[in-house]
Amino acid sequence: MSFACVLSSTVRSSPSRLAGRRFVPRVACVGEARTFSLLVQNSARSRSHRSPLLSLTSRNITQDAAKTQAVSSAPVDVVTPAVGVPLEPVMTDAAQDLLPDMTSTLATHLPAALQYGDLAALGLAAWTPAGVVRWSLEIINVATGLPWFWTIVAGSLLWKVALIPISVKSLQNSARLLPIQGKIKKLQDEMVKVRQSGDKLALQRLSLKFRKTYSDANVSMGATALVPFVQIPVTLGLFFGIKKMCELPVLQLAHSGFSILPDLTVADPYMVLPVLLCAAVNLQIQIGAAEMDLTTRPQMGHVMNGLRVLSIMGIYIMGSFPSGLMVSLLTTSAATTLQSWALQQPSIRAKLNIPQVPLEARGKLPSPLETVQYLIAKYRTMAEEAKTQQRQGRR
């Protein structure tokens, strides 16, 4: 396609250079179309490796050029080939002289490789979560030379790996809390009654009981509370950081280096990525449910079922996201699912000092029918409470 683009357009030369893109003059070769067609066919590495698209493009260009009035410097003998015998191209001296210029022109047709500092020049690197994420992607791309498809995959995995210590600490606390959830639930109910009574001394005693319960179970509530403040900025930084790079766009993202997704700045036209992400999210919820406390908090299981339904409904919305953003989301979701599965293996939990969760304490998601029944019962209960309050208000 690059050859067709070079022949079909002429760009005015400009000495200006933007970050990540060079503007260079292109050669209009309509008059030399036949010579260029021969050049293209003879410059391939092997006849067996010639691209059908390239041959088709060259043939079409030659046919179009035949309709124009081109002035030839030397007479050309027209030889009619026999029926069924292909015409062998001949490399002329003019074509050989044109090869260096054409090679330079086609090479500069693609945007220049990203250099360190280009994203800062575009205003994309900053000390914000999204800016730091984009800065890390620039470092990966410049240092390794990876195509941008694999740069986004590597960057998403890098930030996921950076969060593993926090995820392990959170899992340690949740695994230690599961066996004592019944005791904590009783203390919480007692705390509600004491607060309603206004007994400050009893409230202090209950606070001490809470601390002793957590201390005996070796649970750090401070670390548990810190986890969302670290995970949420990274997650939002990846989302908005890559989204803005695709929407600006950064020109190099239009050439991903991955043939299935050649342009990361546009949405997936076949909706394959949104469907895969929906499947990955549902699998992630299914595997992660084993670490949830669904015994004392059964409503959490119904919330998870609600998220599964939303993920299916969100396929249409995700279909408008740029492919680069969808690649990052899919990579992160797949990595999270794999991490959840790995951290449930007894050998890995033993090495990381994560307590084994008893079978009776492991969470199991309710069925969709159970969720519907729960919602109906919840609605009826709320309606009855509203009617009771209305009656009391009239009295």
Describe the structure.
The structure is a single chain. With 395 residues, this protein is mainly alpha-helical. 62% of the residues lie in helices and 1% in strands. It is built from 17 helices and 2 strands. A two-stranded antiparallel ribbon has the order 1-2. A hairpin with a 2-residue loop joins strand 1 and strand 2. Helix 2 crosses helix 4, helix 6 crosses helix 11 and helix 13 crosses helix 17. The radius of gyration is 32 Å and the shape is elongated. The termini are far apart.
Strand content: under 5%
Order of helices and strands: HEEHHHHHHHHHHHHHHHH
Strand order of the largest sheet: 1-2
Biggest sheet layout:
2 strands, antiparallel
Uncertain runs: 1-76
Rounded mean pLDDT is: 77
Helical amount among residues, as a percent range?
Answer: 55-70%
Number of beta-strand segments = 2
SS field, number of helical segments: 17
Oligomer, anyone?
single chain
Question: Short summary of the structure?
Answer:
This protein is mainly alpha-helical.
